[in-house]
């Protein structure tokens, strides 16, 4: 399952000229090059997700909260001067990694995929808690958009965007266990691609979705 680059990249960023990270020995587009960071970006993404889960679960003392806030501010201040145009970034663009090297959506592990379907597992950590052990109702469409959007734009298909995403919550989606996730094409006519997906906990259907993805016309953002 591979993502297709938008033929008309996002406009609004000036030409950077020489990319500053090239001086650090990185390629021009480090997000598109799995070798750029070795295993270190994957380690970072896992550490970030693990941190968010640990924070969500913990009840730290006030001193710990203050120290943590100071540490995070230090890192934000270090990273802000390194801000780069969207097309050059790494976060969320490492399609070779489970979870694309980001922490916004839960980690999707693809076990099998072909041109028209994909199967895998998804794990919602405590960061995605809604209440009473159930995943937040907004996080479920998030992973559906992730898996359906990637499948809709896979193979040689031109890029598309989600026009609608209908989600039915059939039973509680639990925080913690690995869940089965499946997505498949229902139809593909002209610019319109209809796909469906399910999440199961064992034999229990937790949620299902249908999405319409519309192929972008040239120049459409
Ligand atoms: C670059 C790739 C990144 C992949 C990211 C993964 C997916 C995402 O999360 S994308 C982010 C969320 N989605 C968005 O931001 C999309 C915002 N919306 C849009 O950009 C536009 O409305 C867009 C592109 C979906 C459709 O607009 P447009 O290209 O003008 O299509 P339009 O001509 O109106 O419609 C085409 C067909 O789709 C149908 N259609 C469009 N929207 C809907 C809808 N919500 N419900 C039902 N049918 C619809 C139309 O009726 C039409 O059907 P027909 O050809 O049979 O008459």
From TrEMBL:
InterPro entries found in the cross-reference section: HotDog_dom_sf, THEM4/THEM5_acyl-CoA_thioest, Thioestr_dom
Cited CDD domains: PaaI_thioesterase (cd03443)
One Gene Ontology MF term: hydrolase activity
Record's GO cellular component terms: cytoplasm; membrane
GO terms for biological process, alphabetical: fatty acid metabolic process
Keywords tagged on the record: Apoptosis, Cell membrane, Cell projection, Cytoplasm, Fatty acid metabolism, Hydrolase, Lipid metabolism, Membrane, Transit peptide
Protein name: Acyl-coenzyme A thioesterase THEM4
Source organism (scientific name): Actinocorallia herbida
